[in-house]
Amino acid sequence: MAEPAGDGGGGGGRRDPGCRRLRAGRRGRAGGPRPGTGDPRHPVEPRSPVRTAAGAAGVTAGVAFGAGGRVVVKPPAFEYVAAAGLDEALEALADTSVETRPLAGGQSLVPMLNFRLAAPERLVDLNGIEALAGVEETESGGLRLGAMVRVRQLERDPLIARRAPLLAEAAPFIAHPQIRSRGTVGGSVAHADPAAELPAVLLTLGARVRIARRSRGGEPGSRVERTLDLDDFFLGPFFSALEPDELLTAIEVPPSAPAEGTAFDEVARRRGDYALAGVAARVRLDSGGVCGEAAISLVNGGSTPCLMSEAARTLVGSEPTPEAIEAAAAACAATCDPAADMHASEAYRRHLVRTLTARVVSRAADRART
Ligand SMILES: Cc1cc2nc3c(=O)[nH]c(=O)nc-3n(C[C@H](O)[C@H](O)[C@H](O)COP(=O)(O)OP(=O)(O)OC[C@H]3O[C@@H](n4cnc5c(N)ncnc54)[C@H](O)[C@@H]3O)c2cc1C
User: Fold this and answer.
1) Which of 7, 281, 297, 361 is the most buried (most CB within 10 A)?
2) What's the CATH architecture for 29-130?
3) pLDDT of amino acid 219
4) ipTM of this model?
Protein backbone atom coordinates (compact mmCIF):
# COMPACT_ATOMS: atom_id res chain seq x y z
CA MET A 1 0.00 0.00 0.00
CA ALA A 2 1.45 3.40 -0.92
CA GLU A 3 2.02 6.01 1.77
CA PRO A 4 0.02 9.26 1.81
CA ALA A 5 1.93 11.71 -0.37
CA GLY A 6 0.74 15.02 1.03
CA ASP A 7 0.84 16.75 4.38
CA GLY A 8 -2.82 17.68 4.42
CA GLY A 9 -1.88 21.26 5.07
CA GLY A 10 -3.14 23.13 2.04
CA GLY A 11 -0.96 24.00 -0.95
CA GLY A 12 0.70 20.63 -1.67
CA GLY A 13 3.30 20.48 -4.43
CA ARG A 14 3.52 22.07 -7.84
CA ARG A 15 0.26 21.63 -9.71
CA ASP A 16 0.10 19.85 -13.05
CA PRO A 17 -1.12 22.39 -15.62
CA GLY A 18 -4.04 20.02 -16.22
CA CYS A 19 -5.20 20.53 -12.65
CA ARG A 20 -6.08 24.15 -12.96
CA ARG A 21 -7.98 26.75 -11.09
CA LEU A 22 -10.74 28.86 -12.63
CA ARG A 23 -9.35 30.88 -15.51
CA ALA A 24 -10.36 34.45 -14.89
CA GLY A 25 -11.66 36.63 -17.66
CA ARG A 26 -12.85 33.77 -19.91
CA ARG A 27 -16.43 33.64 -21.04
CA GLY A 28 -18.34 30.47 -20.57
CA ARG A 29 -21.32 28.86 -18.97
CA ALA A 30 -21.54 28.07 -15.28
CA GLY A 31 -23.43 24.88 -14.56
CA GLY A 32 -23.91 25.12 -10.80
CA PRO A 33 -22.75 22.95 -7.94
CA ARG A 34 -24.10 19.68 -6.65
CA PRO A 35 -26.83 20.50 -4.15
CA GLY A 36 -25.80 20.08 -0.53
CA THR A 37 -22.43 18.62 0.25
CA GLY A 38 -22.44 15.79 -2.19
CA ASP A 39 -25.12 13.81 -3.89
CA PRO A 40 -28.28 15.53 -4.94
CA ARG A 41 -30.90 13.32 -3.31
CA HIS A 42 -34.36 12.45 -4.49
CA PRO A 43 -34.55 14.58 -7.59
CA VAL A 44 -38.06 15.38 -8.75
CA GLU A 45 -38.53 15.46 -12.46
CA PRO A 46 -41.18 17.90 -13.72
CA ARG A 47 -43.92 16.51 -15.94
CA SER A 48 -45.05 18.45 -18.92
CA PRO A 49 -46.77 20.73 -19.65
CA VAL A 50 -44.82 22.80 -17.19
CA ARG A 51 -45.30 26.40 -16.31
CA THR A 52 -44.83 26.19 -12.61
CA ALA A 53 -45.37 28.36 -9.55
CA ALA A 54 -47.96 30.68 -8.23
CA GLY A 55 -50.29 32.29 -10.67
CA ALA A 56 -50.16 29.50 -13.22
CA ALA A 57 -53.66 28.11 -13.11
CA GLY A 58 -54.10 24.44 -13.97
CA VAL A 59 -50.44 23.67 -13.44
CA THR A 60 -49.63 20.01 -12.76
CA ALA A 61 -45.85 19.77 -12.37
CA GLY A 62 -44.42 19.26 -8.90
CA VAL A 63 -47.29 21.19 -7.31
CA ALA A 64 -48.38 20.83 -3.72
CA PHE A 65 -50.90 22.90 -1.81
CA GLY A 66 -49.73 24.63 1.36
CA ALA A 67 -51.69 26.41 4.09
CA GLY A 68 -54.73 28.26 2.78
CA GLY A 69 -54.57 26.53 -0.57
CA ARG A 70 -51.34 28.38 -1.47
CA VAL A 71 -49.50 26.68 -4.34
CA VAL A 72 -46.12 25.37 -3.18
CA VAL A 73 -43.61 24.00 -5.66
CA LYS A 74 -40.04 22.84 -5.30
CA PRO A 75 -38.41 24.55 -8.33
CA PRO A 76 -38.65 28.25 -9.13
CA ALA A 77 -41.06 29.19 -11.94
CA PHE A 78 -39.82 28.46 -15.45
CA GLU A 79 -41.12 28.32 -18.97
CA TYR A 80 -40.85 24.89 -20.58
CA VAL A 81 -40.02 24.38 -24.24
CA ALA A 82 -40.04 20.83 -25.58
CA ALA A 83 -37.78 21.18 -28.62
CA ALA A 84 -38.70 18.80 -31.43
CA GLY A 85 -35.49 19.44 -33.37
CA LEU A 86 -32.00 20.87 -33.00
CA ASP A 87 -32.82 24.16 -34.74
CA GLU A 88 -35.79 24.71 -32.44
CA ALA A 89 -33.55 24.23 -29.40
CA LEU A 90 -30.87 26.55 -30.80
CA GLU A 91 -33.55 29.12 -31.60
CA ALA A 92 -34.75 29.11 -27.99
CA LEU A 93 -31.17 29.41 -26.69
CA ALA A 94 -30.43 32.27 -29.13
CA ASP A 95 -32.90 34.50 -27.32
CA THR A 96 -30.48 35.55 -24.58
CA SER A 97 -32.93 38.12 -23.15
CA VAL A 98 -34.43 35.15 -21.27
CA GLU A 99 -32.04 33.05 -19.14
CA THR A 100 -32.38 29.66 -20.74
CA ARG A 101 -30.89 26.27 -19.85
CA PRO A 102 -30.98 23.04 -21.82
CA LEU A 103 -32.62 20.15 -19.95
CA ALA A 104 -31.06 16.77 -20.75
CA GLY A 105 -31.47 13.91 -18.24
CA GLY A 106 -32.30 16.42 -15.51
CA GLN A 107 -30.31 14.41 -12.94
CA SER A 108 -28.20 17.43 -11.97
CA LEU A 109 -30.32 20.31 -13.22
CA VAL A 110 -33.61 19.33 -11.56
CA PRO A 111 -32.05 18.91 -8.10
CA MET A 112 -30.35 22.29 -8.61
CA LEU A 113 -33.74 23.84 -9.40
CA ASN A 114 -35.37 22.16 -6.42
CA PHE A 115 -32.61 23.37 -4.11
CA ARG A 116 -32.96 26.82 -5.72
CA LEU A 117 -29.28 26.74 -6.71
CA ALA A 118 -30.33 27.63 -10.25
CA ALA A 119 -33.32 29.64 -11.40
CA PRO A 120 -33.37 29.81 -15.19
CA GLU A 121 -36.42 31.49 -16.67
CA ARG A 122 -36.76 28.90 -19.42
CA LEU A 123 -35.82 25.24 -19.87
CA VAL A 124 -35.35 23.77 -23.33
CA ASP A 125 -35.98 20.04 -23.16
CA LEU A 126 -33.63 18.14 -25.47
CA ASN A 127 -35.21 14.72 -24.95
CA GLY A 128 -37.25 14.82 -28.17
CA ILE A 129 -34.32 15.67 -30.46
CA GLU A 130 -33.42 12.59 -32.43
CA ALA A 131 -30.30 14.17 -33.93
CA LEU A 132 -28.72 14.24 -30.46
CA ALA A 133 -29.28 10.56 -29.71
CA GLY A 134 -27.31 7.62 -30.98
CA VAL A 135 -23.80 6.23 -31.15
CA GLU A 136 -22.01 5.97 -34.49
CA GLU A 137 -18.71 4.60 -35.60
CA THR A 138 -16.75 7.29 -37.47
CA GLU A 139 -14.90 6.72 -40.73
CA SER A 140 -11.59 6.64 -38.86
CA GLY A 141 -12.86 3.92 -36.51
CA GLY A 142 -13.59 6.23 -33.59
CA LEU A 143 -16.97 6.95 -32.01
CA ARG A 144 -19.42 9.79 -32.21
CA LEU A 145 -21.64 9.92 -29.13
CA GLY A 146 -24.73 12.10 -29.45
CA ALA A 147 -25.12 14.46 -26.49
CA MET A 148 -28.35 12.70 -25.41
CA VAL A 149 -26.83 9.21 -25.25
CA ARG A 150 -27.72 7.86 -21.80
CA VAL A 151 -24.98 6.73 -19.46
CA ARG A 152 -26.70 3.33 -19.32
CA GLN A 153 -26.00 2.86 -23.03
CA LEU A 154 -22.27 3.20 -22.37
CA GLU A 155 -22.51 0.11 -20.17
CA ARG A 156 -24.52 -1.97 -22.63
CA ASP A 157 -23.68 -1.02 -26.20
CA PRO A 158 -21.41 -3.67 -27.82
CA LEU A 159 -19.97 -1.05 -30.21
CA ILE A 160 -18.82 1.02 -27.23
CA ALA A 161 -17.42 -2.07 -25.50
CA ARG A 162 -15.39 -2.77 -28.64
CA ARG A 163 -14.26 0.73 -29.58
CA ALA A 164 -13.97 2.50 -26.21
CA PRO A 165 -14.03 -0.12 -23.42
CA LEU A 166 -12.91 2.53 -20.91
CA LEU A 167 -16.38 4.13 -21.16
CA ALA A 168 -18.08 0.80 -20.46
CA GLU A 169 -15.72 0.12 -17.56
CA ALA A 170 -16.28 3.51 -15.87
CA ALA A 171 -20.04 3.92 -16.42
CA PRO A 172 -21.18 1.49 -13.67
CA PHE A 173 -19.34 3.65 -11.10
CA ILE A 174 -21.70 6.57 -11.86
CA ALA A 175 -24.56 6.91 -9.38
CA HIS A 176 -27.28 4.23 -9.60
CA PRO A 177 -29.00 2.46 -12.54
CA GLN A 178 -32.06 4.75 -12.40
CA ILE A 179 -29.87 7.85 -12.65
CA ARG A 180 -27.74 6.31 -15.39
CA SER A 181 -30.91 5.50 -17.35
CA ARG A 182 -31.79 9.21 -17.48
CA GLY A 183 -28.42 10.99 -17.21
CA THR A 184 -26.73 11.77 -20.50
CA VAL A 185 -23.16 11.93 -21.73
CA GLY A 186 -23.64 15.52 -22.96
CA GLY A 187 -25.25 16.58 -19.68
CA SER A 188 -22.40 15.16 -17.65
CA VAL A 189 -19.77 16.90 -19.79
CA ALA A 190 -21.66 20.22 -19.95
CA HIS A 191 -22.16 20.17 -16.18
CA ALA A 192 -18.32 20.22 -15.81
CA ASP A 193 -18.30 18.65 -12.36
CA PRO A 194 -14.71 17.84 -11.27
CA ALA A 195 -16.14 14.87 -9.32
CA ALA A 196 -17.81 13.31 -12.36
CA GLU A 197 -16.38 10.21 -14.00
CA LEU A 198 -17.19 10.80 -17.67
CA PRO A 199 -15.27 14.07 -18.14
CA ALA A 200 -12.09 12.43 -16.78
CA VAL A 201 -12.57 9.29 -18.85
CA LEU A 202 -13.23 11.26 -22.05
CA LEU A 203 -10.15 13.43 -21.38
CA THR A 204 -8.06 10.26 -21.14
CA LEU A 205 -9.41 9.13 -24.50
CA GLY A 206 -8.51 12.46 -26.14
CA ALA A 207 -12.16 13.29 -26.93
CA ARG A 208 -13.41 16.44 -28.65
CA VAL A 209 -16.77 18.15 -28.21
CA ARG A 210 -19.03 19.35 -31.01
CA ILE A 211 -20.86 22.57 -30.19
CA ALA A 212 -23.61 24.36 -32.13
CA ARG A 213 -25.49 27.67 -31.93
CA ARG A 214 -27.73 29.70 -34.14
CA SER A 215 -25.81 32.27 -36.16
CA ARG A 216 -25.89 35.51 -34.14
CA GLY A 217 -27.97 38.02 -36.04
CA GLY A 218 -28.42 35.48 -38.81
CA GLU A 219 -31.55 33.94 -40.26
CA PRO A 220 -33.49 31.54 -38.05
CA GLY A 221 -32.20 28.07 -38.79
CA SER A 222 -28.70 29.25 -39.77
CA ARG A 223 -26.32 27.24 -37.68
CA VAL A 224 -22.70 27.78 -36.58
CA GLU A 225 -20.72 24.81 -35.31
CA ARG A 226 -17.34 24.43 -33.68
CA THR A 227 -15.22 21.60 -32.31
CA LEU A 228 -13.14 21.91 -29.18
CA ASP A 229 -10.59 19.62 -27.55
CA LEU A 230 -12.17 18.50 -24.30
CA ASP A 231 -9.01 19.68 -22.52
CA ASP A 232 -9.92 23.26 -23.54
CA PHE A 233 -13.56 22.87 -22.55
CA PHE A 234 -13.37 22.79 -18.74
CA LEU A 235 -12.62 26.26 -17.39
CA GLY A 236 -13.41 25.80 -13.70
CA PRO A 237 -15.64 23.88 -11.31
CA PHE A 238 -19.06 23.61 -13.01
CA PHE A 239 -17.82 26.10 -15.58
CA SER A 240 -17.24 25.35 -19.25
CA ALA A 241 -16.41 27.06 -22.53
CA LEU A 242 -20.07 26.81 -23.64
CA GLU A 243 -21.61 30.21 -24.36
CA PRO A 244 -25.19 30.77 -23.14
CA ASP A 245 -26.56 30.33 -26.67
CA GLU A 246 -24.59 27.15 -27.39
CA LEU A 247 -25.52 23.50 -27.19
CA LEU A 248 -23.14 20.58 -26.87
CA THR A 249 -24.29 18.30 -29.68
CA ALA A 250 -21.84 15.39 -29.69
CA ILE A 251 -18.62 13.98 -28.34
CA GLU A 252 -16.05 12.50 -30.68
CA VAL A 253 -13.78 9.78 -29.38
CA PRO A 254 -10.73 9.06 -31.56
CA PRO A 255 -9.98 5.47 -32.61
CA SER A 256 -7.82 3.46 -30.26
CA ALA A 257 -4.37 2.46 -31.45
CA PRO A 258 -3.05 -1.10 -31.70
CA ALA A 259 -1.35 -2.24 -28.47
CA GLU A 260 -3.33 0.24 -26.42
CA GLY A 261 -4.83 -0.51 -23.01
CA THR A 262 -7.12 1.52 -20.77
CA ALA A 263 -8.35 1.20 -17.18
CA PHE A 264 -10.46 3.04 -14.59
CA ASP A 265 -10.91 2.74 -10.85
CA GLU A 266 -12.18 4.90 -8.03
CA VAL A 267 -12.82 4.92 -4.30
CA ALA A 268 -16.21 6.02 -2.95
CA ARG A 269 -17.59 5.66 0.54
CA ARG A 270 -20.58 3.71 -0.76
CA ARG A 271 -21.36 2.20 -4.16
CA GLY A 272 -23.02 4.93 -6.25
CA ASP A 273 -21.68 7.87 -4.23
CA TYR A 274 -19.54 10.46 -5.91
CA ALA A 275 -15.92 9.28 -5.84
CA LEU A 276 -13.52 10.56 -3.19
CA ALA A 277 -10.99 10.15 -5.98
CA GLY A 278 -10.84 8.28 -9.27
CA VAL A 279 -8.25 7.72 -11.99
CA ALA A 280 -8.50 6.83 -15.69
CA ALA A 281 -5.43 5.75 -17.66
CA ARG A 282 -4.51 4.94 -21.24
CA VAL A 283 -1.18 3.36 -22.26
CA ARG A 284 0.04 2.64 -25.79
CA LEU A 285 3.03 0.37 -26.22
CA ASP A 286 5.47 0.48 -29.13
CA SER A 287 7.51 -2.44 -30.37
CA GLY A 288 9.65 -3.89 -27.61
CA GLY A 289 7.08 -2.97 -24.99
CA VAL A 290 8.23 0.64 -24.67
CA CYS A 291 5.51 3.12 -23.75
CA GLY A 292 4.80 5.29 -26.81
CA GLU A 293 1.97 7.34 -25.34
CA ALA A 294 0.20 7.65 -21.99
CA ALA A 295 -2.68 9.67 -20.58
CA ILE A 296 -3.89 9.89 -16.98
CA SER A 297 -6.94 11.85 -15.77
CA LEU A 298 -8.32 12.40 -12.32
CA VAL A 299 -11.80 12.46 -10.85
CA ASN A 300 -11.92 14.90 -7.93
CA GLY A 301 -8.21 15.63 -8.28
CA GLY A 302 -8.56 19.37 -8.89
CA SER A 303 -11.05 22.13 -9.51
CA THR A 304 -11.75 20.82 -13.02
CA PRO A 305 -11.73 17.35 -14.56
CA CYS A 306 -7.97 17.20 -15.17
CA LEU A 307 -5.47 15.54 -17.43
CA MET A 308 -2.16 14.86 -15.64
CA SER A 309 0.08 15.42 -18.66
CA GLU A 310 3.40 15.82 -16.87
CA ALA A 311 2.97 12.67 -14.80
CA ALA A 312 1.88 10.70 -17.89
CA ARG A 313 4.92 11.93 -19.83
CA THR A 314 7.27 10.30 -17.29
CA LEU A 315 6.07 6.93 -18.59
CA VAL A 316 6.85 7.63 -22.25
CA GLY A 317 10.07 6.26 -23.74
CA SER A 318 10.67 3.38 -21.36
CA GLU A 319 9.00 0.13 -20.38
CA PRO A 320 6.13 0.53 -17.90
CA THR A 321 7.91 -1.35 -15.13
CA PRO A 322 6.52 -1.31 -11.57
CA GLU A 323 9.17 1.30 -10.69
CA ALA A 324 8.26 3.56 -13.64
CA ILE A 325 4.55 3.24 -12.81
CA GLU A 326 5.17 4.02 -9.14
CA ALA A 327 7.14 7.13 -10.17
CA ALA A 328 4.28 8.32 -12.39
CA ALA A 329 1.80 7.68 -9.55
CA ALA A 330 3.96 9.69 -7.15
CA ALA A 331 4.16 12.52 -9.70
CA CYS A 332 0.35 12.50 -10.01
CA ALA A 333 -0.10 12.66 -6.25
CA ALA A 334 2.42 15.48 -5.93
CA THR A 335 0.98 17.64 -8.70
CA CYS A 336 -2.76 17.10 -8.33
CA ASP A 337 -4.83 19.68 -6.49
CA PRO A 338 -7.59 17.95 -4.56
CA ALA A 339 -9.89 19.80 -2.20
CA ALA A 340 -10.52 18.89 1.42
CA ASP A 341 -14.13 18.54 2.48
CA MET A 342 -16.25 16.71 5.07
CA HIS A 343 -15.76 13.45 3.14
CA ALA A 344 -11.94 13.38 2.89
CA SER A 345 -8.86 15.43 3.67
CA GLU A 346 -6.56 16.66 0.93
CA ALA A 347 -3.83 14.28 2.16
CA TYR A 348 -6.16 11.29 1.95
CA ARG A 349 -7.24 12.24 -1.58
CA ARG A 350 -3.57 12.51 -2.64
CA HIS A 351 -2.98 9.08 -1.12
CA LEU A 352 -5.91 7.70 -3.15
CA VAL A 353 -4.63 9.35 -6.32
CA ARG A 354 -1.24 7.69 -5.85
CA THR A 355 -2.65 4.25 -5.11
CA LEU A 356 -5.28 4.35 -7.84
CA THR A 357 -2.85 5.72 -10.45
CA ALA A 358 -0.40 2.88 -9.81
CA ARG A 359 -3.26 0.39 -10.05
CA VAL A 360 -4.89 1.64 -13.25
CA VAL A 361 -1.67 2.39 -15.15
CA SER A 362 -0.44 -1.10 -14.35
CA ARG A 363 -3.76 -2.58 -15.50
CA ALA A 364 -3.78 -0.47 -18.69
CA ALA A 365 -0.21 -1.58 -19.50
CA ASP A 366 -1.15 -5.25 -18.97
CA ARG A 367 -4.12 -4.82 -21.30
CA ALA A 368 -1.91 -3.15 -23.91
CA ARG A 369 0.41 -6.20 -23.83
CA THR A 370 -2.38 -8.69 -24.57
C1 LIG B 1 -28.23 10.86 -6.46
C2 LIG B 1 -27.32 11.23 -7.60
C3 LIG B 1 -26.06 10.70 -7.63
C4 LIG B 1 -25.20 11.03 -8.67
N5 LIG B 1 -23.94 10.47 -8.68
C6 LIG B 1 -23.11 10.76 -9.70
C7 LIG B 1 -21.80 10.17 -9.77
O8 LIG B 1 -21.40 9.36 -8.94
N9 LIG B 1 -21.01 10.52 -10.81
C10 LIG B 1 -21.42 11.41 -11.79
O11 LIG B 1 -20.66 11.69 -12.70
N12 LIG B 1 -22.64 11.95 -11.75
C13 LIG B 1 -23.49 11.65 -10.75
N14 LIG B 1 -24.74 12.22 -10.73
C15 LIG B 1 -25.10 13.19 -11.79
C16 LIG B 1 -25.63 12.48 -13.01
O17 LIG B 1 -24.64 11.68 -13.60
C18 LIG B 1 -26.14 13.49 -14.04
O19 LIG B 1 -26.92 12.76 -14.90
C20 LIG B 1 -25.15 14.24 -14.90
O21 LIG B 1 -24.23 14.93 -14.13
C22 LIG B 1 -25.85 15.31 -15.75
O23 LIG B 1 -26.46 14.71 -16.81
P24 LIG B 1 -27.95 15.03 -17.19
O25 LIG B 1 -28.17 14.48 -18.55
O26 LIG B 1 -28.85 14.57 -16.11
O27 LIG B 1 -27.92 16.64 -17.31
P28 LIG B 1 -28.93 17.72 -16.75
O29 LIG B 1 -29.10 17.56 -15.29
O30 LIG B 1 -30.15 17.78 -17.58
O31 LIG B 1 -28.06 19.03 -17.07
C32 LIG B 1 -26.88 19.33 -16.35
C33 LIG B 1 -26.34 20.69 -16.83
O34 LIG B 1 -25.82 20.59 -18.15
C35 LIG B 1 -26.57 21.44 -19.06
N36 LIG B 1 -26.73 20.64 -20.28
C37 LIG B 1 -27.26 19.40 -20.38
N38 LIG B 1 -27.16 18.96 -21.65
C39 LIG B 1 -26.56 19.93 -22.36
C40 LIG B 1 -26.17 20.04 -23.73
N41 LIG B 1 -26.35 19.05 -24.61
N42 LIG B 1 -25.57 21.19 -24.13
C43 LIG B 1 -25.35 22.20 -23.23
N44 LIG B 1 -25.69 22.15 -21.93
C45 LIG B 1 -26.30 21.02 -21.50
C46 LIG B 1 -27.86 21.77 -18.35
O47 LIG B 1 -28.40 22.98 -18.77
C48 LIG B 1 -27.41 21.79 -16.89
O49 LIG B 1 -26.79 23.03 -16.61
C50 LIG B 1 -25.63 11.91 -9.71
C51 LIG B 1 -26.92 12.43 -9.70
C52 LIG B 1 -27.78 12.10 -8.66
C53 LIG B 1 -29.17 12.65 -8.66
Assistant:
1) 281
2) 2-Layer Sandwich (3.30)
3) 79
4) 0.99
